[in-house]
Design a protein that fits this description.
Layout lengths: L9 E2 L10 E2 L18 E5 L12 H7 L3 E4 L15 E4 L7 H19 L3 E4 L18 E4 L6 E4 L5 H7 L6 E2 H4 L9 E5 L2 E5 L7 E8 L2 E6 L17 H8 L1
Parallel strand pairs: 3-4, 3-5, 5-6, 6-13
Antiparallel strand pairs: 1-2, 7-10, 8-9, 8-11, 11-12, 12-13
Length: 250
């Protein structure tokens, strides 16, 4: 794991996936390397081609597009003992539909907390509430409970936060499912949360969050109701419109 990564601005280009997960400093002077915001970072990804998105995937490909070195999460090893070490762990949208995810969380939840405490970042995209509505590996004092509501709008609650700025620009306002060309913006919206900072929500005052952040030790947990990572079919072909893909790569 890179020393000091926790002090960077964690962004995923999908607020997605490459602006939240990338370690680009907001004060960095634009350069050729800025075109690859995640260059030099190592990320372990766990994805699942779920039925809700017609067996789409995409987190790994999008993070690779941002310059990261991408590995499949080794579910036989704890989060803090992945081969070669990683800076980030990403759970793709609806991966909790897979038994492998549920077993990993049950077996290695403690290691996820240790990984973040030491300076790592864990990003979880939207998940199915019927397969487990809580983010079970969060430390004591933090809670996220997902519901069954699917919402069509997004409001930047903290527009100056590096994640939001990277994804939506300097003057972000309300955006809708039409703006990102998705069936909805916030899928399986968060109904209840504790100890988390709301960055993006489906209500202007911060209710119904679709992106939350929590500091833990030197690292960060990021929990999302977005599904902008689902851009490719199971064979790797683009499965969304150019506009949706652009937001996935942002």
């Amino acid at each position: 794991m890179k020393e000091g990564i926790s002090r960077r601005a964690f962004m995923t280009g999908s607020a997605g996936v490459a602006a939240i997960a990338s370690g680009v400093s907001p004060a960095r002077v634009p350069s050729e390397s800025a075109k690859l915001p995640g260059k030099g970072l190592r990320v372990a990804v766990l994805e699942y081609p779920d039925r809700w998105t017609k067996e789409s995937i995409g987190a790994g490909k999008l993070l690779g597009h941002a310059g990261m070195t991408v590995f499949q999460l080794d579910i036989t090893h704890p989060a803090d003992s992945q081969h070669g070490g990683v800076d980030l762990i990403v759970f793709g949208s609806f991966v909790n539909n897979a038994e492998s995810y549920r077993q990993y969380i049950q077996t290695h939840g403690k290691s996820l907390r240790s990984f973040v405490y030491a300076g790592g970042v864990v990003l979880e995209m939207t998940q199915s509430d019927q397969f487990g509505n809580s983010v079970a590996y969060l430390p004591k004092g933090f809670e996220v409970i997902r519901g069954d509501r699917d919402l069509n709008d997004g409001y930047p609650v903290d527009p100056k936060h590096p994640i939001i700025n990277q994804w939506l620009g300097d003057h972000p306002g309300r955006f809708s499912k039409n703006d990102i060309d998705r069936g909805n913006v916030n899928w399986e919206s968060v109904d209840r949360w504790e100890g988390m900072k709301v960055l993006l929500a489906s209500e202007a005052h911060g209710g119904s969050p679709c992106l939350l952040e929590a500091a833990h030790g030197k690292g960060r947990f990021l929990v999302s109701g977005l599904w902008v990572d689902k851009c490719f079919d199971n064979s790797g072909k683009v499965s969304v419109s150019d506009r949706a893909l652009k937001h996935g790569k942002a």
